[in-house]
From TrEMBL:
MF terms in GO: transmembrane transporter activity
Name the record gives this protein: Polar amino acid transport system permease protein
Region named Disordered: 1-26
Species the sequence originates in: Actinacidiphila guanduensis
Signal peptide region: none
Compartments, as annotated in UniProt: Cell membrane
CC annotations in GO: ATP-binding cassette (ABC) transporter complex
Topology within the bilayer: Multi-pass membrane protein
A GO BP entry: amino acid transport
Length: 342
């Protein structure tokens, strides 16, 4: 009985020649570029376009004479730039603290059955989301023109004491108020969406067991709502970091304004803007990684297996790419060896 044989494209993968001693002859290693092109032939045109554009961008950044990388390296850790960096971080942290805290209060008010509380929260959200952020910052910076003195006393009655507005609302305070109060309007909707994502039946079951409403919110609702709240909050914090550059219009010496002060003296505009860009990219990268680990922490109860860390995911992708490249190399070698044997 004749042995069973295979025909068709699959048979072409089997080598037909053997080496000395009856052993299989190893195919010659094909060129590396051949293996790369054999991985995804259907996506080859787009891959080539992306690689060419990336190479052009990298070449432009490295060779552009206007960037002056030695100037970038000199000012990257200068005292003026680092002072502005610290001020940017302070603005971001304080403004987000106001935004998250006040936003949570507004979210609870928005869901209240009391029409006064709900309407007041809705009016706040409508106003601060509708007015441009830059206008709000400028308003707080020029608050003394609107209210020259701030007083403490009986409403619509005598005041006990008063202060000069410019002494209380400094440029830093104006920047924090402008950024934080605007952020609270957006955070309130994020917190409200997270609370509404939790099944109402869980709160009703907890209330049936005798738990108070505040206890239910802290122990039952918020831990589950955090899975919905954390991702957009991370995005808002990254946006806040970049939006802090708007306060440069008030001569607030944050990162961007500090860089502007330097290049107004040295006339090295492009290198100093590259310095600011690199610092912003570095800080947003750190915040993105931190956001991932916070999401991973609050997502432990919702998934049987936690998602891999960014480093683990990167290593896995590199390993998978190398494995595909190795398989493509072996396949190309078999095809070449089969063609020579034929």
């Amino acid at each position: 009985m004749a042995p069973h044989t295979r025909s068709g494209p699959a048979a072409a993968e089997l080598p037909a020649a053997t080496g000395a001693g009856g052993g299989r002859e190893l195919p010659a290693e094909p060129p590396r570029w051949h293996a790369i092109l054999a991985v995804r032939p259907s996506g080859l045109p787009l891959t080539v376009v992306v690689l060419v554009l990336a190479a052009m961008g990298a070449h432009l950044l490295v060779t552009a004479p206007s960037i002056q990388w030695h100037v970038v390296a000199h000012y990257f850790t200068s005292s003026e730039v680092l002072d502005g960096l610290v001020r940017t971080i302070e603005l971001t942290v304080l403004a987000m603290a106001i935004g998250v805290g006040l936003g949570a209060v507004l979210a609870v008010m928005r869901m209240a059955r009391n029409p006064v509380l709900s309407g007041s929260a809705g009016l706040y959200i409508w106003f601060f989301r509708g007015a441009p952020l830059l206008v709000q910052i400028l308003f707080w910076f020029n608050l003394a023109s609107f209210i020259p003195r701030l007083s403490l006393g009986v409403p619509f009655g005598p005041s006990f004491t008063s202060w000069d507005t410019n002494h209380l609302v400094t440029p830093f305070v104006a920047a924090v108020l402008g950024l934080g109060l605007n952020e609270a309007a957006y955070m309130s909707e994020i917190v409200r969406a997270g609370i509404l994502s939790v099944d109402a039946g869980q709160g009703e079951a907890a209330a049936a067991l005798g738990m108070k409403r505040g206890h239910v919110m802290r122990r039952i609702v918020l831990p589950q709502a955090m899975r919905v709240i954390v991702p957009p909050t991370g995005n808002q914090m990254i946006g806040m970091l970049k939006s802090s550059s708007l306060v440069s219009v008030t001569s607030m010496p944050e990162l961007l304004y500090s860089v502007q002060l330097v290049y107004s003296r040295t006339f090295q505009t492009i290198p100093l803007l590259v310095v600011a860009t690199l610092w912003y990219l570095l800080m947003t990268t750190v915040l993105s990684w931190g956001q991932y680990y916070v999401e991973r922490h609050f997502g432990r109860g919702s998934a049987r297996e936690l998602p891999p860390t960014p480093l683990r995911r990167t290593l896995d992708r590199i390993g998978a790419a190398l494995a595909r490249l190795e398989r493509a190399t072996a396949r190309a070698g078999l095809d070449k060896h089969t063609g020579e044997a034929a």
